[in-house]
Write a structure and sequence with these properties.
The complex is a heterodimer of chains A (about 120) and B (about 110). Chain A is an all-beta fold. Helices cover about 0% and strands about 55% of the residues of chain A. In chain B, the strands form 2 sheets. In chain B, strands 2, 4, 5, 9, 10 and 11 form a 6-stranded mixed β-sheet that branches. A 5-stranded antiparallel β-sheet of chain B has the order 1-3-8-7-6, with no helix packed on it. In chain B, about 35% of the residues are buried. Classes of the chains: A mainly beta (about 120), B mainly beta (about 110).
């Protein structure tokens, strides 16, 4: 399945490094999402973008900086991360991102994730 | 009540058994509900959607109980390959089309 792709699949970085995660969706969707999933914890929504506009930021530390240049691409820029930021970072997309326009059948499709380890 | 709540399990069942998981939700206005399957170290994948009273797809049946605000997932004739974590998701009801995910229920089917 190649509907939503993410690169890299694995990333190891030091606390002083700067890196970026990339997500691309080939589904023609208008909304994209970043989630964090730590071991034995539920999915944590980080950011929501609808038509390239950030519509939700769930109190995410500023060391995580999202960027959405168009409706098909989403980036997560990382800098000065902490070891507790080690997790699986998942990107998802859906047809719409705003409750006013979405259909009840709309749901989210996930990419394979980037497994991040911060040393 | 939490927005979405699931029994974390694990549910250990023998092959061929029937197993059911419940998921309770707090947003009484929700009109759609979703079950995802997540294998170890992989991404969640959509398994079933529920919009009215229920949905059936082969060995899998999802049912909705609006009065008690829960959805259930029934798996008949369990296979070893059904071993995974099953996540339920419910729209938040806010301004954005975001899903609230449960913590997931771990199913381990034993030979």
């Amino acid at each position: 399945e190649t509907g939503v792709t993410q690169t890299p699949r694995h990333l190891v970085m030091g606390m002083t490094n700067k890196k970026s995660l990339k997500c691309e969706q080939h589904l023609g969707h208008n909304a994209m999402y970043w989630y964090k999933q730590s071991a034995k914890k539920p999915l944590e929504l980080m950011f929501v973008y609808s038509l390239e506009e950030r519509v939700e930021n769930n109190s995410v530390p500023s060391r995580f900086s999202p960027e959405c240049p168009n409706s098909s691409h989403l980036f997560l820029h990382l800098h000065t991360l902490q070891p507790e930021d080690s997790a699986l970072y998942l990107c998802a997309s859906s047809q719409d991102g705003l409750a006013l326009t979405w259909d009840v059948t709309d749901t989210q499709y996930f990419g394979p994730g980037t497994r991040l380890t911060v040393l | 009540r939490k927005e979405v709540e699931q029994d974390p399990g694990p549910f250990n069942v023998p092959e061929g058994a029937t197993v059911a998981f419940n998921c309770t939700y707090s947003n009484s206005a929700s009109q759609s509900f979703f079950w995802y399957r997540q294998d170890c170290r992989k991404e969640p994948k959509l398994l079933m959607s529920v919009y009215s009273s229920g949905n059936e797809d082969g060995r899998f049946t999802a049912q909705l109980n609006r009065a008690s605000q829960y959805i259930s997932l029934l798996i008949r004739d369990s296979k070893l390959s059904d071993s995974a974590t099953y996540l339920c998701a419910v729209p938040s009801g806010g301004a954005t089309n975001k899903l609230i995910f449960g913590t997931g229920t771990l199913l381990a089917v034993q030979p």
